[in-house]
Automatic annotation (TrEMBL):
This protein's record includes keyword Ribonucleoprotein: no
Protein name from the UniProt record: Tetratricopeptide repeat protein
UniProt keywords, alphabetically: Membrane, Transmembrane, Transmembrane helix
Domain of life the protein comes from: Bacteria
The organism's taxonomic lineage, starting at the top: Bacteria, Bacillati, Cyanobacteriota, Cyanophyceae, Nostocales
SUPFAM superfamilies attached to this UniProt entry: TPR-like
Length: 173
């Protein structure tokens, strides 16, 4: 491997990581695949690129490719890569849990809105006119109903602190 191909692989790797972190998973897969093709598979750096590629495959919806690559990486000569690949295979093969619709928030696609329509505010829930306005006046509390009896906790705590300090002073003498 030449230094030129190594530098190109590093730049593709960095571009793939940046695309992944920005949510551009197809670009990330493309860059990481090119970086992986330029590197030797049995090196530590090659394994690191492939682990990122597994994550990019899964994020892009290519779960089968992610699992297949992970299974290849579970036989990688570098211990950390092998361990990470085994953990990822376990996670990727786990059954997907179904989430109730109430737990999910649907984000509308705003790309179809033109500039003129973007100034219109759309509300999804109708306003309820039956809600009463809360009064701004402070609520007064009847002090005869408040329990103001001393529970003597403060005196017990102060006595315990005083005994502890005096014991520590006695020990230092």
């Amino acid at each position: 491997m030449t230094t030129e191909s190594l530098e190109l692989a590093k730049s593709r790797y960095q571009a793939g990581k940046a695309a992944f972190e920005n949510g551009q998973y197809r670009d990330s897969v493309e860059n990481l695949e090119k970086a992986s093709a330029l590197l030797a598979r049995n090196t530590r750096f090659g394994g690191e690129v492939d682990i990122w590629l597994v994550n990019a495959y899964e994020a892009a919806g290519r779960s089968e490719d992610a699992i297949a690559l992970c299974q290849q990486l579970s036989r990688h000569p570098h211990y950390e890569t092998r361990l990470q690949a085994k953990r990822l295979v376990y996670i990727l093969k786990a059954p997907k849990l179904k989430r109730p619709k109430e737990w999910m928030t649907e984000i509308p696609d705003l790309a179809a809105i033109s500039d003129n329509e973007s100034k219109i505010i759309v509300t999804t829930k109708p306003k309820k006119s039956t809600l009463k306005q809360k009064s701004v006046e402070p609520e007064y509390v009847d002090l005869s109903q408040v329990n103001t009896k001393d529970n003597r906790f403060i005196w017990v705590a102060l006595t315990a602190v005083a005994l502890t300090i005096s014991y520590l002073v006695w020990l230092s003498l």
